[in-house]
Amino acid sequence: xxxxxxxxxxxxxxxxxxxxxxxxxxxxxxxxxxxxxxxxxxxxxxxxxxxxxxxxxxxxxxxxxxxxxxxxxxxxxxxxxxxxxxxxxxxxxxxxxxxxxxxxxxxxxxxxxxxxxxxxxxxxxxxxxxxxxxxxxxxxxxxx
Length: 144
Prior knowledge:
Layout: E1 9-14, E2 17-22, E3 25-33, E4 43-48, E5 51-56, H1 61-67, E6 76-79, E7 84-89, E8 96-97, E9 102-108, E10 111-116, E11 121-126, E12 133-134, E13 139-143
């Protein structure tokens, strides 16, 4: 931010609404393409706690997927994006899943976050159970 490299955790709650954890604090963020720009320009109107500004976002999806262990080939270790509590496990071992389908619901800071499958595949191992506390980066399940 402001030219300084900043690391944050981001979870999409619904289209245009995100939960972001920055320096240990959680913020609800609303995002829309900036008026008068092309939808793929990388310019967005961002509102945090009612304060709006324009942000330029680089497409780092490949880098993020690689860093999170979410390359789309081979086994995928699906990890918790933030600390929380597992509310529901939506799949079982040996179940076939499709990209975008829900896998696990984790509650973090009183918000429910559905962790979605990054690719078509099969659930090889479920590593969590309902009611279990998880930390950021903990393995939730493995999809192949």
